[in-house]
Amino acid sequence: MSILIGALTMGLILALLSLGVFISFRIFNFPDITTEGSITLGASISAAMIVTGYDPWIATLAALAGGFLAGALTGIIHTRFAVNGLLSGILVMTALYSINLHVMGKSNVPLMSDRAIITGIEDFGKSLFSISGDVSLLGSTVPAKDVFILGSVFFIVVTFGFLLYLFLKTDMGTAMRATGNNQQMIRALGVNTNVMIILGLAISNALIALSGAVLAQYQGFSDVQMGIGMLVLGLASVIIGEALISDKSLGYLIAGAIGGSLIFRLLVAMALRIGLNPNDLKLITAVFVFIALVLPTVLKKYKKRGVQSKC
Amino acid sequence: MKHSLTSAVWISIRPLFKMFVIIVVISAGLLVIDKISGKGSSTRKMFALIQFNDSPLSELSGQGIIDGLTSLGLIRGRDYDLDIKNAQGDIATLNLMMDEAVSDRPEILFISSTPTLQAAVKKISTLPVIFTVVADPLIAGAGSSFEDHLPNVTGISTLGDYEGMIRWVKIILPGAREIGTLFSPGESNSVKNMNELKNFAEKAGLTLIAVPVNSSQEVTDAAFSLASRKPDVICQIVDNLTAASSGSIIRIARDQKIPVFGFVSDQSKAGAVLVVSRDYHQAGADAARLAKRVLDGESPAKIPFEFVSKTNILINPSAAVYFRIHFPKEIYLQENLIITKQDL
User: Fold this and answer.
1) Would you call A108 and B91 a contact, using CB atoms and an 8 Å cutoff?
2) Number of domains forming the structure of chain B
3) Do B56 and B103 sit in the same domain of this protein?
4) Greater model confidence, A29 or A92
5) ipTM above 0.95, yes or no
6) 3-state helix, strand, coil in chain B (%, to 5)
7) Alpha-carbon gap: A191 to the closest alpha carbon of chain B (Å)
């Protein structure tokens, strides 16, 4: 049971990452590699502040702000200096490596006994339901705190998913989505596309940094190398989610990004649990993503054939 | 009215239905697999080893654990099963592996490397955890001192023998004033190692020139930069980044006539004159010894952390000849001396 709860919790924490990647990859059509720096930035800022004694909630908000600035910087480099999007991301990601080292003062900050939003929620949950220790779920006992953490992370993800939906439905959000679809058209309508791109990337990286902050508090440390490979994880989640929803309108796409992250983590957990050689893990990851990419096309072809044969 | 409301809700969630079903199905599948594979064999003990990434250190220590258990009379496959997991450097996977360990409940959970220990410290409170190949378990949050630590955690620290290294530098190169090393600020173990070396160097009146490197492409440039500052000897510390390129560091230093001393046995073959190496295989065997004590009923809380019990001295005579270095007699009297026969 605890492996399921662990996988779901991790999936939800990384769902914030996939929401961020969804904005850059699906709205602006480029994979923003700032991700790998900003997730670590979020983790570093929150860990460093919690260790120095700040309230964990303030530390998490600061992490969010840090990600916002990092994303804005990528956007500014991309739009004002006309640097290719991928390259501007690489630039900021590279710079963030040093910045993260400075933020933490060293390469790794443990958060063992310090308070975190996670422990806050845990205490709150325990006092609310007046349980402590283990709870029984579907016939197996699990530590109550794991269940509370899962619940609270779910709450955080749903809140931010909903806020993102509301934002993208506003006039400004609509203009932002249109910027990704057709820059010339939306510019003709008098929208400053540069501002849209900067703001969009800022929001994207704010979400990613939030994911990093929650991740650091969940796993109990922040490490300067923890961002490596995160963009691919985010892309995989977005793609898997997209493949599995039948209606591609905004709300469903956002839900898809969250669900994709959950499915991805569950699949990895399953592959590991079956006793797969861990050396093959990255290979399996690639296979999952490949299947998610190809499946919709294959299904479509299959359906078409089915229709033809009926005729 | 009620009917139209439910149908409206249904229409609005229908596009997500497939995804929802898949999540539920995989979750259920995971639970079933977890139940089935959690049982394991009843006659044999079950141990697990979790590693963070693939490196010679993790391989050597893993083999050391198995050999160590064998020498204590526990044969893999007969007396115990060892489930080796490697997170391939992925932190999310590492956390998942800890969850697996919680449901598998192995009798001993072996841990190698610092990030793995950190994840274990956070997630595992009921299983006995025995770590190895961790430079500083206190930084990783496993305790406040080698004696006073988390009740379920104990293990072997593999912090390099910096004191020994500096002693050898003073013996072999009495005229040395400055020593150098590359280090990787991104790795907490590297920073720790560098500071330890600096500490002992300063105590002995030596100055340490430490040049930072942040990526594997930078190693060559940094090595040139270090060599151009002409330290009397380069004592290259261990970290994941420079370990992979120690060959090129040694080559660059050799061209500038600067001898290299090292802390990992492979450096000797690559041309390091002297290597003072913690034996990582022994680190695994030492962890196995602690595991046996836990299996015999001792509480991990009562077992202090230990340094790895064996340090090897490796010398490379042909490299010494090249740098006109004469080894003093006492080095040949060392118990764990290994002479590397490899021409430059």
Assistant:
1) no
2) 2
3) yes
4) A92
5) no
6) 50, 20, 35
7) 32
